[in-house]
Design brief:
It is a single chain. The protein is mainly beta and 436 residues long. The protein folds into 4 domains: 56 residues; 143 residues, no CATH class; 43 residues, no CATH class; 133 residues, Jelly Rolls. It is 0% helix and 53% strand. The protein has no helices and 40 strands. A 14-stranded mixed sheet has the order 7-8-9-10-11-12-13-14-15-18-19-20-21-22, with no helix packed on it. The chain starts with a strand and ends with a strand.
């Protein structure tokens, strides 16, 4: 081992030591400690006697001025007051390739960190911890709120522990949402377990935004469009004049909505342009309407009842026709002669009987009973000095507005002595249908 030292009368100020392994050590101080070590692998240690790489510093490294090579590639540490990238008085860490003029600097100015490539700014991390990609973050962000802006319009930010927002053309200053540019703005927010969508029309940069909430998905999975959902899976609120609130399209064949409860129903628009209500549970149609508005199934409530043979009656009260030729929906009961109203609306009824005269003064009246009572609208036939056993056809057409569940019967209201009403062999009939 060889040693070279320099000292005063009382202390050793400087000491150089080398050994057979090729290690060169520079030591300083009254009790010499290692300052710089050059090992046999030509690694340099500063503040360490066991360098692990070409330069291994145990402490803080400070560089002033510029350290720039004219060729090759590597890493530069620069401090400069010039403005090669963003602002003056900045520290720069720069990876470069001088041969291809490619470089990527990371610079610091005050409390702001800048990243650039090819001489153009790419990202800025400001003193509040907000990040801008391709843009400097808006200076008005609420203190403590962390945000990332992308370009001139997009931003991501979070406030509370349960809030995150994606924005277009806005930032939040702690009190209001503010326009970044003079344009429209939208926002999507997750807060308190809910999802909310907002929009606002075009405004002036720097002005306060007045957002409207257009959709919300709450923590229970309920969706509200133009409204806050309350107790239904989907709630939609329209505005203005009546128009299309929901539109479902399918360019392939048919489009529809399925509703699942105790039974499963589908509302469909078929390939034949029919409107269909289909009972998927029973695999049966419940309604079919053509594109011209004609009902195919079920047809409108309609019936035509008659009685074969030759029955007659000499009594007042209901007349029972025991056979039907038409009975859409089976709402006419051939046992008691009642037509039960399936849906509220206006109905047309026709009653026809054949009055047999008595040869003196022949009079008879027919009517309708609703829920067992005469409705007061009656048809009457009258003939004076008619021949005995002559016949007078009598027919009455009555229009009634009825409620669902009402029942209607054909009836004889009055009949003269010695006369009767024939209603068999289709000389009599009772029919009716829903008008609307």
């Amino acid at each position: 081992m060889s040693t070279i030292s320099a000292s005063t009368t009382s202390t050793t100020a400087f000491k150089i030591t080398t050994d057979t392994t090729g290690t060169l050590v520079f030591q300083t101080g009254a009790s010499p400690t290692t300052a710089v070590t050059f090992d046999g692998s030509q690694n340099v240690g500063i503040g360490t006697s066991s360098p692990a790489c070409k330069i291994d510093a145990n402490g803080v490294i400070r560089a002033q001025g510029s350290t720039i090579s004219s060729s090759g590639e590597g890493l530069e540490l620069i401090y400069t007051s010039s403005t090669p990238w963003f602002v003056g008085n900045q520290g720069i860490v720069q990876a470069y390739n001088r041969g291809s003029s490619a470089y990527t600097p990371l610079s610091f100015s005050g409390s702001v960190l800048y990243l650039s490539t090819g001489g153009s700014g790419r990202a800025t991390l400001d003193a509040n911890g907000n990040l801008g990609l391709g843009v400097t973050p808006a200076s008005g962000w609420q203190s403590g709120r962390k945000a990332m802006q992308i370009g001139q319009a997009m931003a991501f930010d979070c406030g509370t522990t349960s809030q995150a927002v994606v924005r277009a053309n806005s930032y939040y200053n702690g009190t209001n949402d503010i326009y970044i540019n003079s344009a429209a703005s939208t926002a999507y927010e997750q807060t308190g377990g809910t999802h909310r969508w907002y929009a606002a029309g075009s405004g002036t940069a720097g002005n306060i935004i007045s957002y409207s909430q257009y959709m919300m998905l709450d923590a229970s999975g309920r969706l509200g469009i133009n409204t806050t959902p309350t107790n239904r899976p989907l709630e939609i609120a329209g505005a203005g004049t009546l128009g299309t609130q929901i539109k479902i399209t399918n360019s392939g064949s048919s489009a529809g909505v399925q509703m699942i409860g105790a039974r499963t129903y589908e509302i469909q628009s078929s390939v034949d342009s029919e409107f269909i209500v289909y009972d998927r549970t029973a695999e049966a149609y419940r309604m079919r309407i053509t594109n011209t508005g004609a009902p195919l199934f079920p047809n409108l409530p309609m019936f035509y009842a008659y009685t074969p043979g030759g029955p007659n009656t000499t009594s007042t009260g209901p007349v029972v026709f025991n056979t039907t030729r038409v009975n859409n929906g089976s709402y006419y009961n051939t046992s008691n002669g009642r037509f039960t109203v399936p849906v509220a609306g206006t109905y047309v009824f026709v009653v026809r009987l054949l009055l047999r005269t008595n040869g003196i003064n022949s009079s008879g009246e027919i009517t309708l009973y609703v829920n067992g009572g005469n409705v007061g609208a009656r048809g009457k036939s009258y003939g004076a000095a008619q021949i005995a056993n002559g016949h007078i056809p009598e027919e009455s057409t009555i229009i009634l507005t009825l409620a669902a569940g009402d029942y209607v019967q054909a009836a004889v209201y009055a009949i003269g002595s010695g006369m009767d009403f024939y209603y068999g062999d289709e000389l009599g009939a009772f029919c009716g249908y829903l008008l609307g």
